[in-house]
């Protein structure tokens, strides 16, 4: 195994790295272990490449160890073999024992008990360590036990709209009519096909659909079925289809249980809860709770479910036309979730789509507010929320209107989605 590791280390050091830089500012010389977690194919590896490229520019290429544990040659690797990586490196470069080295372990969760090894080398080597993984709970559980206090964790998402435009070489100039027309055109693709990096660089419709389907299969089979030993595959597939077809939707486990049971599926509510947890762990879905002062009250109300990328709706949606209201809301959620781990929906008499306690921010999303009844409903719910929470401003994100209105001292900023995604 040592010889294989020598080959992997050397081949990577000799390899050219091609990537488009993402908007993540990951520290290179932190005293902590850096962990990047997120859904598969969201670009975690290429963010490692960004860091490695900076190190290469400093003349530190020989100080780098990069191992991808998704390499088929490492299938069945035991954590007992992991120390051979370090042995192999120092056999190649014995002079580096007195220098700082940089260790990159990609998809580390593929090796059971990896955290014991990582903790040991963190404590014993002069090394900066970078990890990636596609399981939020697996990594956080292991970090919380063996690596507590030693790590900084960054969540990696598919592309933001700003990054998407960068990948497609679209210039952002909010004062240029030409630039704005390209931005609006690309928003349509972003809304429908999502922001996975590989998808952003692809023009062929058939390839996009096939790639997204492959992503779902990879995530579901590698990160859910294999990891948790799922037996009821038909139920899991039905749940995935339901969730991906209905983003930004309030879901009650009890109602879902009754609906699936009436369709002839054998299941329990506990099974549904578990499957939701597994899909959440694999970063395929997120949930928001109603904002309440009591956890019990939060749990009594339905949760709103969002999906990691609009592209998954693209391959599951069977309607003749896209549901832009849901796609808009899911895109706004993902934009907020990149910044804030705690997001709620608010409801007294009327519902507000998002409340961010950290910023004391209320946001409603409505694709089409051309009808006065719709416009009034969105405004009234925001004003009710602002009164209840003692706020003075809120946002209404829509398709094409931009204005600022003030009612009884409450300000509401109406912004088109494309501009809000680029400016907030």
From TrEMBL:
Domain called DUF4143: residue spans: 222-358
Taxonomic superkingdom: Bacteria
AAA domain mapped to chain residues: 31-165
Matching InterPro entries: AAA_14 (IPR041682), DUF4143 (IPR025420), P-loop_NTPase (IPR027417)
Signal peptide from the UniProt entry: none
Any matching Pfam family: AAA_14
Protein name per Swiss-Prot or TrEMBL: ATPase
Organism taxonomic ancestry: Bacteria, Pseudomonadati, Aquificota, Aquificia, Aquificales
């Amino acid at each position: 195994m040592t010889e294989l590791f020598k080959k992997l280390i050397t081949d990577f050091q000799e390899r050219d790295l091609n990537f488009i830089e993402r908007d993540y500012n990951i520290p290179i010389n932190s005293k902590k272990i850096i962990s990047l977690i997120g859904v598969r194919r969201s670009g975690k590896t290429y963010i490692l490449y960004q860091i490695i490229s900076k190190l290469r520019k400093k003349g530190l290429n020989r100080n780098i160890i990069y191992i991808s544990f998704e390499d088929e040659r490492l299938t069945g690797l035991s954590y007992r073999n992991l120390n051979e990586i370090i042995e192999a490196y120092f056999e190649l470069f014995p002079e580096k024992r007195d220098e700082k080295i940089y260790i990159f372990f990609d998809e580390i969760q593929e090796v059971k008990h990896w955290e014991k090894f990582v903790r040991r080398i963190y404590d014993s080597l002069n090394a900066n360590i970078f990890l990636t993984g596609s399981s939020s709970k697996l990594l956080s559980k292991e970090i919380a036990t063996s690596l507590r206090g030693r790590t900084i964790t960054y969540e990696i998402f598919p592309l933001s709209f700003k990054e998407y435009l960068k990948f497609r070489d679209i210039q952002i100039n909010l004062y240029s009519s030409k630039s704005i027309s390209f931005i609006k055109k690309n928003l349509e693709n972003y809304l429908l096909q999502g922001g996975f990096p590989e998808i952003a660089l692809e023009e062929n419709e058939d390839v996009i659909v096939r790639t997204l389907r492959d992503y779902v299969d990879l995530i579901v089979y590698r990160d859910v079925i294999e990891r948790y030993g799922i037996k009821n595959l038909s139920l899991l597939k039905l749940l995935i289809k339901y969730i991906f077809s209905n983003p930004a939707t309030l879901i009650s486990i009890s109602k879902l249980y009754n609906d699936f049971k009436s369709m002839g599926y054998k299941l329990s509510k506990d099974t549904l809860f578990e499957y939701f947890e597994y899909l959440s762990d694999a970063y395929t879905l997120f949930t928001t709770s109603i904002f309440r002062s009591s956890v019990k009250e939060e749990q009594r109300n339905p949760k709103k479910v969002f999906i990691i990328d609009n592209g998954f709706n693209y391959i599951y949606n069977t309607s003749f036309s896209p549901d832009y209201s849901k796609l808009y809301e899911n895109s706004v959620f993902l934009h907020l979730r990149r910044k804030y781990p705690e997001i709620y929906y608010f409801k007294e008499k009327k519902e507000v789509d998002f409340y961010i306690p950290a910023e004391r921010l209320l946001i409603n999303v409505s694709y089409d507010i051309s009808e006065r009844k719709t416009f009034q409903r969105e405004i009234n719910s925001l004003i009710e929320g602002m009164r209840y929470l003692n706020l003075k401003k809120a946002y209404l994100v829509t398709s094409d209107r931009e204005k600022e209105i003030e009612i009884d001292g409450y300000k509401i900023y109406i912004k088109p989605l494309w501009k809000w995604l680029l400016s907030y």
